[in-house]
């Protein structure tokens, strides 16, 4: 009889990207740099939005939450991967793997929901500008974020519980740089029917949120086409250009993960493709918003100016 273990599993092995020792310092330096850029870039967005009263708008409130989620998102996976490379130890405890998987699913879902909520905000701003302040009041904005957190937490909890009930055999190597749920389910030697069904249902729900975003933008495009002046069209489009860039980046890279893993049989193909939406997308979001949003750009310039002028004073140089 095949050996099974439900609760006595001590650890999994995260295979990561490459077995070659010569390339590991390069991978370590690259991911450390991207992680630091992600954390500091999103922290600057958080500081800019919280410190400038002119940026206390619904869209920037959602951006504030998105930046916080992106910091947590990357912090769920990258520090552990960097530690494994530095210590030359691929192991992660069973409990640590489940916890990492829970928070990864939580923050992926939150990213999805927040992008959907931001699309609704753009829709109201462009299609119903006269009623914008009435519809997008502070109570509704807070409620939308709260509901996003609750649904994401419940979804993550249910999927984690579904994994906890699985039995695992002797093959505990995960061909990834973090505990990705699909890879873990594939390692199970017990029945995974309910896990597959729940995973499929979560995918359908994600598709529905994308449909909501596409519907919002179809209405936005129709409204923009109805504007007579070129300046009015540009102003309306620039309102949501940053968000549209983020949506394309997030969903295109997420779709690329599944297409690449389906098109090739390489064990590391999914891990390599996952870098795009787990690391690159959160890193680029602050640049996209700071470059496209003049108000945030000015707020960031003030923060940097204050840091450079106060720095020498703190050090006693002035």
Automatic annotation (TrEMBL):
PROSITE patterns: G_PROTEIN_RECEP_F1_2
Annotated keywords: Cell membrane, G-protein coupled receptor, Membrane, Olfaction, Receptor, Sensory transduction, Transducer, Transmembrane, Transmembrane helix
Record-level Gene Ontology MF annotations: G protein-coupled receptor activity; olfactory receptor activity
GO CC terms, sorted: plasma membrane
Topological category with respect to the lipid bilayer: Multi-pass membrane protein
Nucleus found in the keyword field: no
Subcellular location field: Cell membrane
Transmembrane segments: 26-49, 61-82, 102-128, 140-158, 197-215, 236-259, 271-291
Domain G-protein coupled receptors family 1 profile: 41-289
A Pfam cross-reference name: 7tm_4
Function text: Putative odorant or sperm cell receptor.
Family of this protein: Belongs to the G-protein coupled receptor 1 family.
Protein name per Swiss-Prot or TrEMBL: G-protein coupled receptors family 1 profile domain-containing protein
Organism: Muntiacus muntjak (Barking deer)
